[in-house]
Amino acid sequence: MLTIRAALDELATAQKSAKGVSLYSRYINRPFGRVLAAIAYRAGLSPNQVTLVSAAVTCAAVALIATVAPSPGLAVGVFAAAVLGFALDSADGQVARLTGRGSLAGEWLDHVIDCAKLLAIHAALLVSFYRFFHLSHAASLLIPICFQFVAVVMFFGGILTEQLKRRRPSAAASAPPSTMRAIALLPADYGVFCVSLLFLADQDAFFWVYVCLLVANALLLGALLVKWFRELAVA
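Above: the chain sequence. Below: its structure as tokens.
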């Protein structure tokens, strides 16, 4: 079995393409996930076990949001759990590449849990809004529902587009990762959403940060849907 240092070196040469990935995932989440993957490898965890640990940690963040009133302590706890869960979500695939134990069942499990995560965390925020926030209008409760809709459609659309593209013959050479695109994708990165949870220390600040993220994601979703459709419509 490789040492943690050797596993890190091995993983550094076995990373997925940075194309279509935001700066947060490229420079923060994947490197953090690489460290966790090396630790999980040394602990003898399988990729699916890492996926389940990721789900458990994220569930802790969801439970805290739904049951505890916003405060500085809650903000730090939820942020830590959400960021760790996201990094572990990156680590499972890296463990699979390191050990050669990747499988279709593992990929399915990862995607199902990712979708459940998006549904659950916005549902938890809806509960938090209803129980703890001093909202000026009841219609504000629609905001987490709209964000949930946008996030799930974007996730499903991206996954489905990727799967359908695999049916086509390989293209000759793809363009290198774009830094501008990586910046533009930041609002849709789950890691950036995790960082926004630090604003739970202040109800009003979080509410408006959440609304701004929703608007940015909705605009980005519209652009991505057009892009994906045009790419798949090409004969």
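The two ends are 47 Å apart (CA to CA).
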